[in-house]
Amino acid sequence: MSRLIVVSNRVSAPKDPAAGSAGGLAMALSAALKRYDGLWFGWSGETVETFNGQMKVEDRAGVTVATIPLEAQDVDEYYNGYANRTLWPLFHHRIDLTAYERSYSSGYERTNRRFAEVLHPLIARDDLIWVHDYHLIPLASYLRERGVKNRIGFFLHTPWPARQLLVTLPHHKAMVEAMLAYDLVGFHTEEWRQLFCDYVTNEAGGRVEADGTVHAFGRTTRTGVFPIGIDVQAFVSARDSELGRRTFNRMQASAGERAMIVGIDRLDYSKGLEERLAGLQQLLADHADWHRKLFLLQITPLSRDTVDSYQDIRGRLDSLAGHINGAFADMDWQPIRYLNRSYRRDQLAGICRAAKVGLVTPLRDGMNLVAKEYVAAQDEDDPGVLILSRFAGAAEQMRDAILVNPFAREEVADAILKALTMPLEERQHRWRSLMKVVQDTDVSLWRDRYVRALQRPIEEMAAAPKRRRHTTA
Question: Does the annotation mark 157 as catalytic?
Fold first, then answer.
């Protein structure tokens, strides 16, 4: 059986598999690495003055992890620069925030080459290599330069941008050409895959076959849709754990007779947090009868606080939340509880279960697993209602959520009111449909589907439809 090598910007394999805060993706990949006797390779998160090839190899709960440090210049240009100031805003359609600086792209190329240089000697002949996310798009091309013939797959955890925006990126063709060094490129949704194929056909002069095989730049690569999910059983177990139950009881007691609406998002301009607060503000302005009857618990851990745009949005959110509370709060009630801190997974599960409404309104998102976690946390006899942005990847699957345009504050306000007044029978019907989606896209199923697809040679994929046609003829 082939060994699996997972490559990501940061290695998130948990040191303690019982840790309540361990993410579902980390747990699923860790399980795959154990099954395939694999290796997880990436940045340690540490910086050094000069990189001289140092690498740390350790065992984390049965998973072999290999990490390297980066120089401070690499972190500034590759991570804070090209990854988070260039690609992240561009891929989320925020070209107004996108910074195109030559030093950023140079640092991105240099760091990816360094990853390839250190990883190359670790690769055995039959290893499968699975590269994750926008930080490492050119990695396969640099490995190919070093003679690596192995099957290499790539999975993008963000949206793919529209062609008309992607062409604003200097050297955009070189980036897409580098992606065709992979054997399989995976996306969360058909929309993201179609946008990629649109670039290939209309900008790169390539062609796309009906099965998703792409031909361009003299190369052939398969594309596929692999919607990621959560570790359903682990999340339900976290919800039902002692801390999960205590958190649920605590939040119920805190809410009293008021309906709690919950939002859980990393601090990021793509999450639609300002628009969400504006929607709640509109509801309070239009429906005075709902004053004192509801509140929004917005949990927003800080992130990337060295990037200017993240500092800016933090200031705006602090101001907006304060303004809304100042305008509508009473001595014993405020409509927004705004928290800049992280919580354990079992605590979040208890919070979600206690919330009558889950408000998930990103302006653009690759998938958004909070939507699926909210559904999994619910009591099937008395479930809450999910409000979901139609611009989240999850909306392609979760059609029985209340889908909204987060840019339209009145639409968000109307959706909140609809969720709060929805009859029990309709809530149960919607929840059952959504829970089936959550179960059918469990993160372990996502992982296994992708690895199986990566293992299949492109010749076999191309021949499969012919065999089916011959059999049915």
Answer: yes
